[in-house]
Every structure is written in C-alpha cells, then in structure tokens.
C-alpha cells in the first residue's frame, strides 16, 4: 500500500514536472514572522531576477507548530526543495536520509571560500557532512535591567555565579520584582545545560565511552543553583511554566531584572525598552573561571527528494552569499557566517558588547549542545522541561533528575558511537 | 413524550412502513427494495464516514503494533504488543494522564452540567428580554476553543489579568499568582475555560427538554400539594432523564477527547500535572514523532471510552422506562 | 413552575433572585469576550506595562486597521467562509437523509449504525491526521479547501444526524404517509410536504455545523500549506512568531472572526431549542 501510494505520488510529480519548461522551487520557512517573510521574499526576488526560468514558492509555517507540520508534510510525500533548518532538527532529518550533502554544490557559490570556521563546523555537525549551510548563530548573553540594579544598590552586572545569586537576592528584595527571568517552560533546556557546564568547568558532555557527565556532582550543583533560585523566591513563582514570550515580556515589563537570551531577543526588547535602561553582559563565570554560553544556529538545507537539485543549490548559495547573509543576519539578529562579517558596525556597537566579549575572550567558550543525537530534540523539548519543572517544584531531587537525563543521553550517545 | 433518541427514533405505536403494510400499495417494490430503502437515505453518510474516518482509523490504530519512524518509512517494523507493554507497565506519565483525564472530565462535566441545568431552568420562565438574554448566554459555544483558551490564560496571568487578584481578594489564594503554574491548581484553568464553553450545550438541550414537559403535570402536582422541589423531583427529572442521559454520554466522550484547552493553556505542565490522555497523544505523536506509541495510547483511550459508553447504555436500558 | 398566584412579597423576592441569577450568567458569558475586545484595542506598548486594568488608558484602532487593510486576513476570512458554509450545507443534506432514516424506519442494522456513529465520536482525531494526509496526497486533496470540507463533513455528520433525527421526530409520520397514499413516492412526499416543515431544523443544523467548522484548528493547520488557502484559525497562529506575539493584532483578527460566528449562532439557537423540543414532544 505504501509503495503504491509513493509510486502514484511520484508519478504525479513527474507528470507535472515534465509539463513545464520552467522550474518551480518550494521553499519552506519555519521561523516565521510577517517581517521576516518580507525580507526573505526580497532576497528571493533578486535570485529570481538573476535566474529568470526559476520561480520560488515560499511556504511559511507558524513556528509554534512548524515541527509537526513539516513532519506531517514530509511523511505525506509533500517534500519541499529547500527548507529552513534549525540546528535541533538537523540530526533527525539527516539521519533519516532526507537531506543532501551540499559540499559538492558549494564550489559553485560566490562566497563559499569566505565562510568562517564556525559555519563550516556547525553545518557539518551531523556525520561530518555538510547537510546544511547555517545562516547565523544564536549565542546566549545576559540582558540586565540597569534601573532595577541601581535601585537594589548594585553597581554592575554579575561577573560570577556567586554574584548572580547575590544580585538575584538583592533585586528580589524590591517589592514585586524578581532577580532572574527563569525559563521553566518550553525552551528551558539551554538554561539547565549552561548552569551545569559552568559549574563543571568544561563542556565535554560525554566521555569516550559515551557516558554522560551531566550527573557528575558539579553538574548537579548547577541544577541545584537554579532550584535554589526558584525555591528562595528570587524568580517569579509562575516562571516554572514560562516560555520565550513570557521571559521576554517579564524582562521588558520590569518584572525580572536578568534574562539570558540571544541577539534576536534584542530586537524585541529594544522596541519596548529605552536603550539606557538595559544592557547586555557576558554570561557569569563558573567556579573554574570559565563560562559556557550555548550557541545555536539555523540555516538552509536541501531535501533529497528534490527534483531540481541544481537550482535549489543555487538558491541556497544565493541566500548564503556575503551580501544577502549580512542583510539577513542584521535583520534577524544572528551572528553572520562569513569571515570578518561581525566587524560590521551593527555588531560592534555597545549593545552587542556582551556577545562580542564572549566571542573574543578565552574565558568564554560557546558550547554546542549534542544536537547530532536524534534523541536530543525530545530531550530538549519534553524531558528537560518536565524534569526541570518537577525539580523546581521540589517533587524530585536534582540528583534524581540528573541521573535520568544522563541515562537517556548516555544511551543515545552510545548508540551513536556504535553507528560510527 | 420525551424519550431517548439513541436507538429510539420513531418508536411510536403507529404502523411502520414495511413490506406487509397495505399503505405501500402503489409501489409494490420487491421486499429487498423496501428493506434497503432506509439505506438509500443513509448511504451518503455511511460512505463518507467509512472513507474519511474508519479507514484512516484502522491505519492509525495499526501503528500501535509497529515501530513507526515517520520520517523514514523504511525503518518501520512490526513489533507486536511491545508498545502496549511499555504503556501499561513502564510509563508513569500514562497513568498520571489517565487520572488527570478523569479529574478533567468529571470536573468539567459536573460544573457545566449543573450550571447548564440551572440556566435552562432560569430560561424556562418567560421574562422581559428573554430572547436577547438567551442569545447572549449561548454565545460561548460559538467561540473557537483555542481562542477562549488563550483569553483565559490571559485572565489568569497576574501581570495583566484580573482573576488572580479577585481570587486573592476572595481569600481563595494567599496572594495573586498564576494558578496555571501551580501543579495543584493548574487543572482548574482549563476546566473553567471548558465550563464557560460547555454551559450552552447543556442549557440548549435541557431547555428544549424542559419545554417539552406538559404544563398540566405541574398544575396537577401543585393541586396535590407538592412543593416546588417535589415538583422538580417527581415531574421534571423523569422527563429530563433521557435527554440528560444522552447529552452527558456525548459530552463526556467529547471532553475526554478534548486536548485544545490544555495544550493552549498549560501544555500539559507543569510537570505533567495537567497532562491528559488526548494531549499526551498529541505530544507523543508530534513532538517525539513516535506515532507507534501515540497510537497505542490512543487505542487505550478508545477502549476506555467504548467501555464507558457500553456501561452507560446498559444502565440506561435497565432503568425503568419513564414515559 | 407553580400555577399563577397573586403577586406577593415571596414571589417578588423570587423574581429578583431570578433576575440576579440571569445577570450572573450573562456577565460570566460576556466577560471573556469583553477582555478579548479590550486587548484588541490596547496599543502594544501599554499591554504589559500598565498592569491589570479593566480598560487601557489609551485605545487604538491600529490593530484592526492592520488586520483589515495590511494583512492577509480578508483572504483567510473568505477561505473560512467557503469551508464553513460548504461543510454546513454538505452536512445538512447528508445528515437530513440519515436523520430521516433513523426517524422513520425500523430496520435490522439500525442499532449497529447508531453504534458506528457513536463510535466515531470516540476517535482521538489526532491519530487520524497522518493517515488522512497520506491518503489524500495522491488524490490531490491536501492543501485544498475541498479536501478540508470533505474531512469536516465526515466529522460533523454523526452529531448532525442526531439533531436532524430529533427534528424529524417532531414532524408526524402521518404527513408523508398520507401524501404517499395520495400517490406520491416517498421522495416527492419528502420534498413537497416534509421539507418545508424542516426548514427551521435545517437552519439550526446549518448554524451548529457552521460554528464547528469555523472553529476548527488542527486539521486546517495540518492539511493546508499555502498561505492563500489558510483559514482564519491558522491565520491567527501566524501572529505568534518565535520572538513575540502580536497579541493586539491577533485579538483584533479574532474579534473580527468572531462576529459572523456569534451572529449566526445567536440567530439559529432558538431554532435548535424549538426543534429539539418538538422532537421530544412528538416522539
């Protein structure tokens, strides 16, 4: 039945394909907003001008449901040519043989030689194959509310984890305010990982045998740090359920004074707060004098089922050209992918200081979470959130949760190692 | 006379048209034709339901016995009852969701039924402006549930919504905070939104049943010296019973399958305290992409609802007929 | 509920209690809708910064302006209209047939068919998405309003059948039977005699199904990909981006979308009550 359906749909696709001399590419974007779509379509229009017999149709999926929508489309046989691929989905699609190795196509691209090391490294994060070309990097830094800090008698952002705890305590003493905008709901995995890595002093999540290090005593201290923040009341009580929108709203409404976020949050916050009222500092240092802000990325990938691979590759090449990418990165709020591009004035201003320090000072080491593991998406979306909530609410101990996580990730890692 | 529409229909003592009736004289269709006649009227419905619901359901349920890797159809394999084994013996979230579903269903149903009944009783007496009032109080049913879920989530958020402050003022909360973040109280959020949505359903159906009750019966009861309460018990309730039976059955099934409000307001959290079976199915299928396991959970839910309906229908049959 | 008695203090108290209770119900029903409207007219910058207020310090029509003039909402709106009306009409026709059959006929498979209809209500619809998607892809029914109408129709037929059966029960069988004695076929008896009498019932079913189709989100989200075919429900989700939620605009769109649904439902709800009552009496 399956093969019959696949056969019928393939036949249908082929029939419609040969009837046209022109090529139509389907591009799916998943991190969608009306403004982004506009900019994207502008960039694509330039591509269409340069390639008159190629038309690009853009499908925009609402971000909240994009994961399941894309999966439904793919399993149903409606597979686009080019897709916006977040780092966390990459291993899932790549390991199921859905994506194309872009390395051979890159030679034809205008600025491929100028991609910086990070772009090349993270694009080939899964199986050392360039399954995607990143369009930018998200790096965590600490937003802090200058007014609240001044009110609490603090003279600057926290430099160490101890400062972080002390600052939270001081600000929570103010009426109706809290120190930190904790993300206990969806997307909270980054916070847990960063705190654990900071306390461990390293970001080797696994040893050579595939055992996870996140249930080591130091990592458990990292978890306990967040639990203490919650249970001592230094974070808002309902932050146990807060997702992206709530923590950002909590910050710009002045409810909580510190927020760890990526440059894209800067855009949303700058619209609602005056520039003198906040600043961005590098993440606090752990006891080993080092800090590990998480780095994430998204980019463009090509589906193996594409009927127009050359054209699709050319489109990705165009979107990844120096000029297009800089425009995109500035608009979207990510760190661009070409060598030297972050020297652009947009990225060297005072508001970008926190990220600039993190990228250039050795004490900060941007850490990538093990997204090459297929199981990681479930860990980040479900296990980390649920376990984290049980932890914050006191239903389970940090040790218990860390052990559960370490087992799940360790098993995944061992499976991955065995398959190498 | 009120009677249950389920399996009921035209059970009046009138002559039904069948092959032996003299009324069918002018078109002496062969027996088969007459026997098939109801099916002519039923066939569009049956065909549509078979194609769009049953065939996909069978396909969907078959996933429960397989290990489905949805993005890679070639990795799929038959694994027999393994999913069910995990479900029953190793998955504590499943059992928690099951308990939560019971609370969710009884809580939602209880409140919306009694409040709906109350509204129906109130609307059963004529008063100035009744038409307008009736139109207004039934409005919640027309509001998409994801919208009402969002709105109620706003209302429960102490930063911008009034509910926590009112609850604190009434002494229900020690201080205004968001109950949606409190595992002990979070379930009440979706329940209240569901009650708001569901009152019109019961109000409409029970009002209709109330209006069908002959007024003479109340007058007779009053003459016999019955109080209003006795009138309610002896006259109203028996007439309402069939409508109550079917609406409660239907609404229970609908509520048990209803994930929208939970997904929108709490996402099943915090810590699975509001996770109900339908939302658990959704998460497993679309966040974990484990269609096999999700299908196993769905099968379990289907079986439970089937059992529930069967029990209720049996009970209904055994009760003395009130008409 | 008691027989008419001369006005006395007791009944005055009862009347006041009655009105007070009605007032509570009306407030409860309207308050969330009022809140929706309030958010729609609140300017973005005031939304989180003013705390809890019953009405913002400044209101704006900008959100409505954006939704009506600068977004794709008019298109989403008309798609929803097409799908909801299409579904409502299809369901009413099909359910009338089925409801009539249940109302008039006694036949062997009746209990089984009723059981099947009840069974469909128990299906966790989430599980049907993937199989339906796969079955519809080769037929070209995905990403099409027609496909959505077909799916919605199937989902709504069972309950609509129950409604139509009730309405038919309210019409005495003798009517079409005497028409048939006079020489009509059953079908033409239906058309000429019964159909005009069921118009209120059909209007009620139309309204009920329209509301259900109008509100549906999950299948619209999964089955429709192209932006020009989205229904308003999916359109509302596009206001939720990764970085911010344009609450004001979203609620403005929601208010606009609620107007037809609420008006239609407010109009037909009394036919629902009437029809169900008649069905209950004459049965």
Question: How would you explain this protein's 3D organization?
Answer:
- The complex is a heterotrimer of chains A (420), B (323) and C (283).
- Chain A has two domains: 2-138 and 296-350, D-Maltodextrin-Binding Protein, domain 2, CATH 3.40.190; 141-292 and 373-419, D-Maltodextrin-Binding Protein, domain 2.
- In chain A, strand 1 (23-29), helix 2 and strand 2 (54-60) form a beta-alpha-beta unit.
- Chain A has 18 helices and nine strands.
- With 420 residues, chain A is an alpha/beta fold.
- Chain A has helices spanning 2-18, 34-50, 63-75, 87-95, 103-106, 117-123, 146-151, 161-172, 189-200, 217-231, 244-252, 263-272, 309-319, 322-332, 345-348, 353-360, 376-392, 398-419; strands at 23-29, 54-60, 82-86, 132-139, 141-145, 178-180, 256-261, 278-281, 295-302.
- With 323 residues, chain B is mostly helical.
- Chain B starts with 30 loop residues before the first helix and ends in a 5-residue tail after the last helix.
- Chain B has twelve helices and two strands, in the order αββααααααααααα.
- The model of chain B is unreliable at 1-26 (pLDDT under 50).
- Chain C has a single domain (70-282), classed as MetI-like (MetI-like fold, Orthogonal Bundle).
- Helices cover 74% and strands 0% of the residues of chain C.
- Chain C has twelve helices and no strands.
- In chain C, helix 7 (145-169) packs across helix 9.
- The longest helix of chain C has 36 residues, at 247-282.
- Classes of the chains: A alpha/beta (420), B mainly alpha (323), C mainly alpha (283).
- The interface between A and B is medium-sized, with 33 and 27 residues.
Estimated structural class of chain C = mainly alpha
Order of helices and strands of chain C: HHHHHHHHHHHH
CATH topological fold name of the largest domain in chain B: MetI-like fold
Topology pattern of chain B, helix = H, strand = E: HEEHHHHHHHHHHH
Total helical elements of chain C:
12
Considering residues with a beta carbon less than 8 A from a beta carbon on another chain, report the largest interface and each chain's count: B-C, 116 and 110 residues
Count the E strands of chain B: 2
Q: How is the biggest beta sheet of chain B arranged?
A: 2 strands, antiparallel
Overall pLDDT metric of chain B: 84
How many strands appear in the DSSP assignment of chain C? 0
Morphology of chain C: globular
* Structural class by helix and strand composition of chain B: mainly alpha
Q: Note the gap between the termini of chain B.
A: 7 Å
- CATH class placement of the largest domain in chain B: Mainly Alpha
- Count of distinct structural domains of chain C: 1
């Amino acid at each position: 039945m399956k093969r019959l359906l696949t056969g019928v749909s393939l036949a249908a696709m082929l029939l419609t394909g040969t009837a046209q001399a022109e090529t139509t590419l389907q591009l799916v974007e998943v991190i969608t907003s009306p403004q982004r779509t506009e900019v994207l379509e502008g960039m694509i229009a330039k591509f269409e001008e340069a390639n008159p017999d190629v038309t690009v149709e853009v499908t925009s999926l609402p971000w909240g449901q994009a994961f399941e929508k894309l999966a439904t489309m793919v399993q149903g046989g409606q597979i686009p040519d080019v897709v916006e691929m977040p780092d966390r989905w990459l291993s899932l699609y790549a390991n199921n043989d859905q994506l194309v190795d872009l390395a051979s196509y890159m030679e034809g691209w205008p600025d491929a030689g100028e991609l910086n090391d990070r772009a090349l490294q993270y694009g080939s994060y899964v199986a050392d194959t360039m399954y995607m070309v990143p369009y930018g990097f998200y790096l965590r830094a600490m937003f802090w509310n200058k007014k609240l800090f001044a009110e609490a008698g603090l003279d600057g952002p926290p430099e160490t984890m101890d400062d972080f705890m002390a600052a939270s305590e001081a600000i929570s003493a103010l009426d109706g305010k809290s120190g930190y905008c904790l993300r206990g709901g969806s997307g909270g995995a980054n916070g847990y990982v960063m705190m654990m890595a900071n306390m461990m002093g390293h970001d080797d999540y696994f040893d050579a045998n595939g055992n996870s290090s996140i249930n080591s005593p130091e990592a458990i201290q990292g978890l306990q740090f967040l639990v203490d923040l919650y249970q001592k009341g230094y974070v808002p009580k309902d932050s146990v359920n807060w997702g992206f929108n709530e923590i950002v709203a909590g910050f710009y409404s002045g409810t909580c004074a510190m927020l760890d976020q990526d440059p894209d949050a800067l855009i949303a916050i700058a619209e609602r707060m005056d520039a003198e009222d906040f600043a961005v500092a590098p993440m606090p240092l752990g006891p080993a004098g080092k800090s590990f802000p998480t780095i994430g990325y998204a980019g463009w990938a090509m589906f193996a089922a594409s009927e127009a691979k050359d054209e699709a590759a050319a489109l990705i090449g165009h979107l990844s050209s120096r000029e297009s990418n800089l425009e995109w990165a500035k608009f979207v709020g990510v760190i661009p992918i070409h060598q030297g591009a972050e020297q652009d004035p947009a990225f060297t201003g005072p508001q970008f200081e926190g990220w600039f320090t993190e990228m250039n000072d050795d004490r900060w080491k941007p850490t990538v979470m093990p997204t090459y593991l297929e199981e990681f998406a479930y860990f980040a979306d479900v296990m980390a959130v649920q376990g984290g909530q049980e932890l914050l609410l006191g239903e389970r101990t940090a040790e218990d949760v860390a052990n559960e996580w370490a087992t799940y990730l360790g098993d995944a890692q061992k499976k991955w190692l065995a398959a190498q | 006379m009120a009677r249950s529409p389920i399996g009921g229909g035209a059970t009046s003592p009138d002559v039904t048209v069948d092959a032996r009736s003299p009324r069918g004289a002018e078109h002496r269709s062969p027996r088969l034709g007459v026997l098939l006649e109801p099916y002519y009227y039923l066939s569009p419905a049956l065909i549509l339901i078979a194609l769009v619901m049953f065939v996909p359901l069978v396909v969907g349920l078959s996933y429960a016995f397989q290990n489905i890797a949805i993005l890679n159809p070639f990795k799929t394999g038959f694994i027999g009852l393994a999913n069910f084994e995990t479900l029953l013996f190793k998955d504590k979230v499943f059992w928690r969701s099951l308990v939560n579903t019971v609370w969710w269903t009884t809580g939602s149903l209880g409140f919306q039924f009694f409040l709906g009944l109350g509204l129906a009783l109130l609307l059963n007496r004529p008063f100035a402006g009744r038409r307008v009032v009736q139109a207004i109080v039934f409005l919640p049913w027309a509001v998409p549930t994801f919208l009402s879920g969002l709105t109620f989530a706003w209302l429960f958020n102490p930063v911008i919504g009034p509910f926590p402050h009112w609850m604190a003022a009434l002494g229900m909360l020690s201080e205004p905070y968001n109950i949606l973040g409190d595992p002990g109280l979070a379930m009440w959020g979706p329940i209240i939104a569901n009650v708001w949505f569901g009152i019109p359903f019961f109000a409409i159906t029970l009002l209709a049943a109330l209006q069908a009750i002959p007024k003479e019966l109340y007058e007779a009861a009053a003459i016999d010296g019955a109080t209003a309460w006795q009138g309610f018990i002896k006259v109203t309730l028996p007439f309402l019973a069939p409508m109550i039976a079917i609406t409660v059955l239907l609404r229970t099934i609908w509520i048990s399958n209803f994930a929208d409000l939970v997904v929108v307001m709490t996402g099943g959290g915090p810590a699975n305290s509001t996770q109900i079976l339908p939302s658990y199915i959704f998460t497993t299928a679309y966040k974990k992409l484990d269609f096999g396991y999700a299908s196993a959970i769905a099968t379990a839910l289907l079986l439970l609802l089937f059992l529930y309906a069967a029990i209720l229908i049996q009970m209904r049959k055994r009760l003395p007929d009130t008409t | 509920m008691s027989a008419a008695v001369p006005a006395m203090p007791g009944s005055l108290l009862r009347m006041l209690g009655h009105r007070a209770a009605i007032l509570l119900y009306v407030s409860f029903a309207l308050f969330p809708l009022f809140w929706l409207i309030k958010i729609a007219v609140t300017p973005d910058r005031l939304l989180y910064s003013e705390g809890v207020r019953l009405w913002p310090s400044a209101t704006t029509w900008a959100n409505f302006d954006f939704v009506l003039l600068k977004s794709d909402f008019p298109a989403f709106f008309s798609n929803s209209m097409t799908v909801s009306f299409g579904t409502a009409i299809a369901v009413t026709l099909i359910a009338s047939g089925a409801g009539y059959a249940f109302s008039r006929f006694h036949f062997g498979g009746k209990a089984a068919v009723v059981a099947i209809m009840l069974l469909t209500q128990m299906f966790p619809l989430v599980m049907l998405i993937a199989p339906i998607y796969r079955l519809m892809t080769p037929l070209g029914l995905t990403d099409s309003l027609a496909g959505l109408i077909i799916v919605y129709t199937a989902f709504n037929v069972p309950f609509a059948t129950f409604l139509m059966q009730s309405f038919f029960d309210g019409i005495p069988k003798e009517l079409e039977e005497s028409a048939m004695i006079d020489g009509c076929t059953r079908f033409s008896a239906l058309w000429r005699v019964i159909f005009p009498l069921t118009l209120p019932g059909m209007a009620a079913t139309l309204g009920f199904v329209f509301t259900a189709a109008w509100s549906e989100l999950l299948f619209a989200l999964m089955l429709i990909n192209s932006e020009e075919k989205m229904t308003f429900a999916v359109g509302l989700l596009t206001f939720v981006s990764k970085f911010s939620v344009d609450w004001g605009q979203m609620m403005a769109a929601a208010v606009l979308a609620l107007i037809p649904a609420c008006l239609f439902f407010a109009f037909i709800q009394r036919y629902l009550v009437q029809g169900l009552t008649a069905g209950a009496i004459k049965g």
